[in-house]
Amino acid sequence: MDLLPRSPGEFGSSRYWDRFFRQRGQRPFEWYGAFPELCPVLHKYVRPRDKVLVVGCGNSELSEQMYDMGMCEDIINIDISDAVIRQMQERSGSKRPKMSYLLMDMLQMDFPDAHFQVVLDKGTLDAILTDEEEATLAKVDKMFAEISRVLQVGGRYLCVSLAQDHVLKKAVEYFSQEGWVVRVHQVAGSGDKQQFVLPVFVYVMTKFRRIPGSAPQILEICPEEQDKLMRVESVERLVAAVKDRQHYALLCSQLSKTPCREQVSLDLCDKESGRPRYTLHVVDSPSVKPSRDNRFAIFIIPQGRETEWLFGTEEGRRQLAASAGFGRLVTVALHREQHYEGMAGIQAELSGKVMELAPPGLSAQQQVPFLSVGGDIGVRMVQHCDTSPLSGEYVVEDVKGDGTSYFRRLIFLSNRNVVQSEARLLAPAPLSGQKKRRKDKKKASPTEPPTAIDKSYLCCEHHKAMVAGLCLLGGPDPLPGDEAVLVVGLGGGSLPLFIHDYFSQARVAVVEIDPSMLEVATRWFGFSQGDRMRVYVSDGLDYVAKLAAEVFALPPAAPAQYDAIMFDVDSKDLTVGMSCPPPAFVERPFLQKVKTILKPEGVFVLNLVCRDIRLKESVLATLREVFPLLYARRIEGEVNEILFCQPSPEGRRDPTELGARARALEGDLRQPGRPWDSSYALADMLQAVKIL
């Protein structure tokens, strides 16, 4: 502790450094890593015939090792401490005759202009730029001006630094404005891990003649252990890129010392494009008793299954880690924009990186297992991608589920972890012998998924619950005759298609604000319109308001229009704690309009996805004000909650009666020759409702 300065300003005091080196003696003091870590970067920019100036040399062995390794010999070292200069002259004088040590202030050097090809600074800038006071900044400007003066055109200023925001920004702004090329390297395996948690960087500023006018800035970063340079467009982006790497180093340091109480997530990016390639979640299981073989594992999530509850939620990943039986499990999600060379390729790519996330005390030689479902990385085939003015970028993709099942999904890239619509794909029918022989000759890919949509299958649990809500329609018969149904929100069209096909007399009207979604549903999800199915491209708010106005204009005895109204519409505003529906759809004046176009014995079914507890309570309170009878059905393992709202309390039924009506409805829907999946279980859906 006695070696530390009393205040940051002492870093610029020769008296402080004399005292520092006298107390430390002959032991070298290596700021920010030793020669082995810095050597790969220095080799790129220091040539054997270069004349090199080392500013603020201290008693570091760096110059000596550069000399001894033959990197270069014409090295002049300067420092403001007389004690360290005498010490270093005694240590190197006879051994390294071409290298010299001079007592000199780098703010006022005696060298002529353009005297050096390289100026090397290891921690000196960090020691001076301890704050952003005017006097400090003036001193740094003077330092930079002197370095610029003594460097030849084409020469390099190599600055080894921890890259604090204000230090990096000052250096990059100064030299880029002078027309120099600025490059930042991260040093691999840098420094003493006990001394410095943060990684070490080398700024490489290459001097060019200043061009009159506004020449474009050239700013580049080279991440750890990579030769590929990444061009960035601004100083702010360069600082942000460095900060990302510092945060990662801090995270790895934290994970290597203590178990993480909360799940940690991070992206690993592609070297070429800089786009996310892997998304990792680190999950610790305190309940798992550690042994040599169960401390750490990597789980590769099959492509396309990252949205499933087990892989896409904190609780699901926690359950996955516990059932896998490992103290720390890192789940790895694969991105749709990337190409992967199978499990072996992923393992080779990730092996070194994931070890940086290992739990405390794990040996570097420990074999870490890579796990997955079925031992492969799954199948994902992007069928279509486009951009909608309303929904933004979206993709339609086919993914492999459990076993041999394939599914088609619609994903909005603004919320890429949520499946907007999903449909099961039908397996191709068996081929006759002759056709099969012709097919075999084509050698179809064994991983090629089917393409026909299974319109009889509801993939989404909340859609099954919404269909079950039709049991609440009035009358003793659980299956009304020619019911009129309004669905707001088309998506892929699976919900209105199912109602149209299974309720053979139902008249279905669908409102969809985005014309692109109608095109997607028709082209990719088997949706079609007909006499009993019509789509209206309109804002649901406007459409309902228009119908309500028409009802008000009719005679008092005129009936309302719909037996059932269903809202399954997502919110484009991700800043609100409710992703479905948009807040305007659950405001009291609009809900009154919904009630106006709903028959007295009808049912309003709402898919509510709300993580904000207070907002959810407010929505429920508003619904109760408008609809006296309100049922709720939570979807297990999901945030979705399906609300069944009725205009009259007289239709109240307990869950047992609802279950009986659901069984009767299910019997009516299960007609000969009509597919019916056992997962629909309408009775179970309704017996679990809660009356609010």
Automatic annotation (TrEMBL):
It comes from the Eukaryota. The keyword Transferase applies. InterPro entries: Lys/N-term_MeTrsfase_sf, Methyltranfer_dom, SAM-dependent_MTases_sf. Keywords: Methyltransferase, Multifunctional enzyme, Transferase. One of its GO terms (biological process) is methylation. GO terms for molecular function: methyltransferase activity. Residues 50-171 form the Methyltransferase domain. One of its GO terms (cellular component) is cytoplasm. This is eEF1A lysine and N-terminal methyltransferase. The gene is Mettl13.
